[in-house]
Amino acid sequence: MSKSLTVRTLIGLAAVGATVSLSGCGALIQQIAGGGAQPAPETESAPAAEGGDTAAPPAEAPGSGEENTDIFDLSVGDCVNDGASTGEVTEIPTISCAEPHDSEVYHEIQSTASSFDQTAIDTEAEEGCQAAFESFVGIDYGSSVLYFSWYAPTQQSWDSGDREIDCLIYEPDVQTTGTLAGAAR
Questions:
Q1: Residue-wise burial string across 21-57, b where 16 or more C-beta atoms lie within 10 A, e elsewhere
Q2: d(CA 71, CA 94)
Q3: Does pLDDT of 37 surpass 60?
Q4: Which pLDDT does position 89 carry in this prediction?
Q5: What is the 3-state secondary structure (H, E, C) of 57-86?
Q6: Could you report the per-residue pLDDT of 54-69, keeping only the tens digit for each?
Q7: Closest of 100, 96, 95, 111 to residue 8, by C-alpha
Q8: Contact 169, 139 (CB under 8 A)
Q9: Of all helices (H) and strands (E), which one includes residue 120?
Q10: Are 56 and 32 in contact (CB under 8 A)?
Q11: Rounded to 5°, angle at Cα 108 from 179 and 23
C-alpha cells in the first residue's frame, strides 16, 4: 500500500504582484513498512516541479483550523494535512497536532552530499529517517504499523542551497490526533 504525497518547493515570489522567480522543488519519497508479514519497503517518487512562496503571511484554510505554511518552514513537531496533496506545492496545510492530521514531521536531516545526486540523497533520507524512527516511536520500523516518508531537495532547490530533508511519520488510511512520539505501535 502506498500513499501519494507532494513535492517540496523552494523560495520564489518576492512580493504579491512582483516578478516571480521560479526555483526547484524537492521530491517526496514514500516508504512502506517492511518486515514480518508486512510488504517489503517500496519507493515512489513524486515528480519534481517548480514553484515559489508568497510574501503574504500564511492564510488559514477556511473552517479547518489549518494554516498554509511554506514547505521550507516545516519543523520537527509540525503536523500536516498533506494526504490529499498531489503534484506541485509551495505551501502545506499545518494544523495543531491536537486536531486530526495526516502526518507529523519527526526528524530533520541536513544532507552531507557534496553535489546533487537524487539517488544518493534519497538513500541518505531513507537511512536517516529510518534510523530516527525507533527513538521517536518507541519500536523498530519493521514491527510498527506506522510508515514514514520524506521531503528532499531537487536539483533546482539544491542549486539554491537547500540541503534539508524532512522526515514525516503517519498511519496509512487514517488521520491521527496527537503526536505519534512514543506511540510504540
A1: eebbbbbbbbbbbeeeebeebeeeebebbbbbbbeee
A2: 10
A3: no
A4: 64
A5: CCCECCCCCCEEEEHHHCCCCCEECCCCCC
A6: 233 334 444 468 999 9
A7: 111
A8: no
A9: helix 118-137
A10: no
A11: 120
Q: Is the pLDDT of residue 156 over 50?
A: yes
- Nine-digit cell at 122? 534519497
What is the amino acid identity at position 12?
G
Whose grid coordinates read 498531489?
A: 86
Amino acid 157 reads S
Name which of 123, 104, 103, 105 is nearest 113 in CA terms.
123
**What single letter denotes the amino acid at residue 19?**
T
Q: Which three cell numbers stand for residue 30?
A: 514514500
Residues in a beta bridge with 45: 29
The three three-digit cell numbers of residue 23, written as one number: 526555483
Kindly report which listed range (6-20, 87-101, 166-180) carries the lowest average pLDDT score.
6-20
